[in-house]
């Protein structure tokens, strides 16, 4: 039977997950709780914390805030300033390969490379999301009316992908063949990178604010409905012409967060009432991981072995679910 170890976090939990030696919980109030061998609390931003993203190798956490600073926080509690844009509101960040960090404010995105070089990318409209490709330093930037794909380490014009509307969160498929954005109008849009074929995924009653790729990249799990919607990406045409899986359906509450298991075709599904279920793709078998709480589940992530799940809510509740005693 899964067990839940609650943790005391002050404020909206922006991001929760695992580094190499500890779990982390980043709060909008500015605090970061590291839970491993004991608990360590650090506060790096002068004002609020707006975004947090684990480094690709799991050695630390990148954070940004309304003080215009981007910090790298190690799992031992130490921190260092990576970049600073005074008087800028930095609420979009992404961690890439080889220590690259992307961040954005307004119409401008930047990439800070490990050797200290920085590249600036100007756009006609405000940036809505950032994502690095799985391999190489290609940066995808979502914006109004589409997305731009830049080479982060070299000069040159971007590859442009066009679709009318406001594009927000953005993600590459694990194999790098597809690019998917969450739109303002309760839908997803995707492109097959080889030929720029459009893929339209609609029908959501709410905006998609959370998505997670399954461990082999065969499915993309999403929030925004009264079930976790998993679009299939294992055919030649991606999700086009295929029906999505619907897991953890509940009649009275919407899914607010999803996190696919790192080793099995299983997804953790968090709801607006704080409930968390674990659902299996094959037969939609469900296991209750957490009972309802005080607010919507805002963030979840598994450890590398897939035996612990870190979670946080909009009401400041947080904890670690253990599948093993």
UniProtKB/TrEMBL annotation:
InterPro entries: WD40/YVTN_repeat-like_dom_sf, WD40_repeat_dom_sf, WD40_rpt. Signal peptide: none annotated. This is WD40 repeat domain-containing protein.
